[in-house]
């Protein structure tokens, strides 16, 4: 199997999407949670201004609660998930955008959900831009 050499390119609004991963009520106790959500909220505002698509997920919402209101995602319909990666629940959205080249990734549980999402996206040949100031973990 030939390997794909990952590369980073320019983030262009017409070929990019913003992923917001699991910024939910039960994660409020995480160190720097407010700052992470604040940066992600700014990313969301910019994406909306640039008319970029945005996808929002919630990990097991029955147990971890809803997305925190300060994210400003009121108009977005969160997609529930029960695995680490966002890709299985957003695959339809990815398939609907053949021009997609890059994903901006923000969210909670960097060592699990963010990492597996990034790896799955790279496997699909997409560029992944992890917004470091908008990601964190419980530990």
Automatic annotation (TrEMBL):
<feature type="domain" description="Isochorismatase-like">
    <location>
        <begin position="16"/>
        <end position="138"/>
    </location>
</feature>
<comment type="similarity">
    <text>Belongs to the isochorismatase family.</text>
</comment>
<dbReference type="InterPro" id="IPR000868">
    <property type="entry name" value="Isochorismatase-like_dom"/>
</dbReference>
<comment type="subunit">
    <text>Interacts with CDKN2A.</text>
</comment>
<dbReference type="InterPro" id="IPR050993">
    <property type="entry name" value="Isochorismatase_domain"/>
</dbReference>
<dbReference type="InterPro" id="IPR036380">
    <property type="entry name" value="Isochorismatase-like_sf"/>
</dbReference>
<protein>
    <submittedName>
        <fullName>Isochorismatase domain containing 2</fullName>
    </submittedName>
</protein>
<dbReference type="Pfam" id="PF00857">
    <property type="entry name" value="Isochorismatase"/>
</dbReference>
């Amino acid at each position: 199997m030939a390997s794909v050499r990952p590369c980073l390119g320019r983030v262009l609004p017409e070929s990019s999407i913003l992923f917001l991963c699991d910024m939910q009520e039960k994660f409020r106790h995480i160190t720097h949670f407010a700052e992470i959500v604040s940066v992600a909220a700014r990313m969301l505002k910019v994406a909306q201004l640039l008319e970029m698509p945005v996808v929002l997920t919630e990990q097991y919402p029955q147990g971890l609660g809803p997305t925190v209101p300060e994210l400003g995602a009121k108009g977005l319909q969160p997609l529930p998930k029960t695995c680490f990666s966002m890709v299985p629940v957003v695959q339809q959205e990815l398939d609907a955008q053949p021009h997609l080249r890059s994903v901006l990734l923000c969210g909670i549980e960097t060592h699990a959900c963010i990492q597996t999402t990034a790896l799955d996206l790279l496997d699909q040949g997409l560029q992944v831009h992890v917004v470091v100031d908008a990601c964190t973990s419980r530990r």
